[in-house]
Design a protein that fits this description.
220 residues, alpha/beta, Alpha/beta knot, Helicase, Ruva Protein, domain 3, 6 strands, 46% helix
Length: 220
């Protein structure tokens, strides 16, 4: 990270921190490690981020996550960071990210490699993303400036919870049971890249539906 000019590191529920081995391996970047932010959960770590992209090599065929290469993702991340905050999420070395982790992300970054041997360790994946961000910063792509920042992850979670509440009230449930419907809705929100005003509008609509329904049922 430090080699490529990045300095804001968040660690989610680390097994041990600080740790002498990590400090030794930092090899000159121990100041960046010492300033690392700690979060108990991924939701907490990305709560204020408007654009959150996950890195994954595994297929997500069950649900649609927009997939980007590192080169495609870098200018989008920089544009989002210019008016708010953005994050790239990496899983653990052994297991990567879960589908639950991806619920907090707007899309997936996939590093194209040899399909017959696409093994990358965590450090390599981080370095590739950090390099593409450095290149994108040096040769910025002109993108339309947003008048309103992207809604932070925490606001999208509240929108999803509000929608779930209304769907339950009107008995609109997933025919297959479980969380599949809300996961698909979360993917729609992620692809839309909603700003704060748009989230407020959608929550206002949901509140109006609830109020109308309660008035309609008041005489029964």
């Amino acid at each position: 990270m430090k080699t490529m000019g990045l300095d804001e590191l968040w660690l989610v529920a680390p097994a041990a921190f600080p740790h002498a081995e990590a400090t030794a391996l930092a090899a000159g970047a121990d100041d960046l490690l010492a300033r690392a932010h700690l979060a108990a959960s991924l939701a907490e770590a990305v709560a204020d981020c408007g654009l959150v992209l996950a890195t994954s090599a595994r297929s997500r065929a069950a649900y649609y996550w927009p997939a980007l290469t590192p080169r495609e993702a870098a200018p989008r991340l920089l544009a989002a960071a210019a008016s708010g905050s953005a994050a790239v999420v990496f899983g653990t070395e052994r297991t990567g990210l879960t589908n639950g982790d991806l619920e907090y992300c707007s899309g997936v970054i996939h590093i194209p490699a040899n399909p017959a041997f696409d093994s990358l360790n965590l450090a390599q994946a981080v370095q590739l993303l950090a390099y593409e961000l450095k290149c994108a910063r040096a040769s910025p792509v002109l993108r339309p400036q947003r008048g309103v920042p992207l809604a932070p992850s925490a606001e999208l979670e509240r929108l999803k919870e509000h929608l779930d509440e209304v769907l339950r009230e009107v008995d609109f449930t997933d025919r297959n049971g479980g969380p599949h419907l809300l996961r698909r809705v979360a993917r729609i929100f992620g692809r839309a890249e909603l700003d704060q005003h748009e989230v407020n509008i959608l929550r206002g609509i949901l509140t109006a539906v609830q109020a109308r329904r309660r008035r309609a049922g008041s005489g029964s």
